[in-house]
Amino acid sequence: FHYALKPTGYLMLGASETVGSFADLFALLNKRAKIYSKKSTHVRPTVVFGPTPLEPRAATASEPTAPLSVIPNLAEIQKQADRILLTHYSPAGVIVNKYLEVLQFRGRTGLYLEHAHGEASLNLLKMAREGLVIDLRTVVNKAIKQNTRVRQAGVHVKQNGHLLEVALEAIPYHVPPSSERFYLVLFQPAGGGTEAASNKGHRGDKAQAHRVTENAERTRLREELAATRESLQAIIEEQEATMEELRSANEEIMSSNEELQSTNEELETAKEELQSTNEELTTLNDELESRNTELEHVNNDLHNVLSSVNIPIIILGSDLRIRRFTGVAEKLLNLIPGDVGRPITDINLPLGIPELPRLVMDVIDNLAIRELELKDREGHWWSVRIRPYKTTDNKIDGAVLALLDIDLIKASAEQVSQGRAFTEMVINTVRRPALLLDKELTVQAANQRFYQTFQINPETTLNHRVYQLSEGQWDIPKLHTLLEEVLPRNPSFENFELEHNFHHLGRRKLRLDAHRFTARGDKHHLILLTIEDLGEPPSQ
Predict the structure, then answer these.
(1) C-alpha–C-alpha distance, residues 59 and 175, integer Å
(2) Which residues pair with residue 532 across a beta bridge?
(3) Which residues partner with 35 through β-bridges?
């Protein structure tokens, strides 16, 4: 980021971010907002371009063999003179930043600065010689705080047993367009050194020189004490500022710790929720697998049922589209697997069911069961039954169409009908009153002679048990014995006479004949009961 920023640019970091080991590249402007400005660095990447080798060429007669002299211009002469003056006559000094890191040495600074033992450092105070640290710190700090030129004379620095008096001066400046400030620290010697243990002059002036030296030393010590106090006060203020920064940093760390703890709790909660969700998903997955297995079993059962049932069945949806059909229906109705999903109205069924769409929709809408009988083109009888398709939650979702083969039933019924018609024709040829009873002793037919003789009509005779005729007048015990005991053990009985009192005929004497037989096309036996009215019995 340092090289990407403009000289007047700013770097904003997040609450949990720092510049780390690159504090020498960025200056802190706002500690709470984490806003930094770009520092100007004195280290620049250098690119070394090697000399391009040129092949020597032979000199020609037209080229001069002596080198040409180059006459410098006035600006270069003046620049070189300034360089000599700055080197020999300017005071020694250094350029530092606000962190007191030396960026450049100017002149001979060996009398005032030296490298300390241990790890290499360019800090100005760590490099200052003995006696120079306190005053140097005071001067530079004043220049930093007041942003003005500060000078202090009468500073003594010790070197090789000599005390050198020097004047310190700190000059703040900046290089536009950057707002970062730099400081030029100058060391200006006041004169020659004074040897601490030298013997000067004559013995008579020794006392006077000693007093002068003591007064000067006393004055220097007072000034040094005052400077030390100021430096100590500055150190205390710096320490208080540092402590305040540490408190602020501690509060930020505690706040960050609380935020981290809150984030950790949220993560724990999210983890628990995730685990709970995972368990629910596992449960749902197990249920889904169970339902899939159950659905597969149901599908297999349905497939086997439809494959095993020898009945043409078609399952239709609410939109009259074919969902499934059995193999028998496929053969009978000329269906193909591609017909699944097609509307039943688009398929020409060979059976020719009249108004099939209307019947199916009527079943779906009214929940009614429709049944009809019809013949196919070959004269085969079928019973078409349409029922509503119900889901497990009792919803109507289509219809089920089944075709039942009733050709044999129709043929048998026709034979039975023909047999009974023949029997009725035979009964009507009998001259005596006659009844045709089934195995339940229900009247199936009677001739006209029976209706005339006993004054009874067909409505109260047909499909009634023989004992219920004429309002129960035929409920005769002897007749019970003949029909329920004698006839089941014998195919017939003849000339059985009985007397009975009828309400509207009076007392009559009857002769009964009965024959048990089986009509053509009927599996159950019938009973032909003939009755001869012998008139009123003689009184006794």
Answers:
(1) 51
(2) 511
(3) 12, 30
Question: pLDDT for 305-326, tens place per residue?
Answer: 777 778 888 899 988 899 888 8
Whether the ω angle into residue 177 lies within 30 degrees of 0, i.e. cis, is yes
Q: Distance (Å, rounded) from C-alpha 369 to C-alpha 434?
A: 43
Whether the CB-CB separation of 170 and 140 falls below 8 Å is answered with yes
Strand partners, 97: none
- pLDDT score of 88: 66
H or E stretch at 159: strand 150-159
539 sits in the region (left: phi over 0; alpha: psi -120 to 50; else beta) called beta
306-310, long-range: CB < 8 A, 24+ apart? none
Residue burial 46-64, b: 16+ Cβ < 10 Å; e: rest: eeeeeeeeeeeeeeeeeee
What range defines the domain where residue 6 resides?
Answer: 1-41
**Number of C-beta neighbours around residue 456 at 10 A:** 19
The reply to whether 399 and 418 lie within a common domain is no
- Backbone torsions φ then ψ of 286, nearest 5 degrees: -65, -45
Work out whether strand 396-405 and strand 381-390 pair parallel, antiparallel, or are unpaired.
Answer: antiparallel
Q: Give the CA distances from residue 494 to residues 76, 473, 474, in Å, rounded to whole numbers and listed in that order.
A: 169, 22, 19
In a domain, residue 271? The reply is no
300 vs 307: CA distance, rounded Å: 10
Q: Are residues 228 and 102 in the same domain?
A: yes
The answer to whether position 61 is within a domain reads no
pLDDT-based confidence at 40, cuts 50/70/90? low
The verdict on 91 and 27 lying in the same domain is no
**Residue 20 DSSP code:** G
- Give yes or no: residues 29 and 139 share one domain: no
Burial of 406 per CB tally in 10 Å (0-12, 13-18, 19+): middle
CB atoms within 10 A of CB 136: 26
Write down the pTM of the prediction.
0.39
- Which residues does residue 498 pair with via DSSP β-bridges, in sequence order? 510
CATH number of the domain at 495, please. Answer: 3.30.450.20
pLDDT of residue 33 exceeding 60, the answer is yes
User: Among 228, 222, 221, 217, which Cα is nearest to 138's?
Assistant: 228
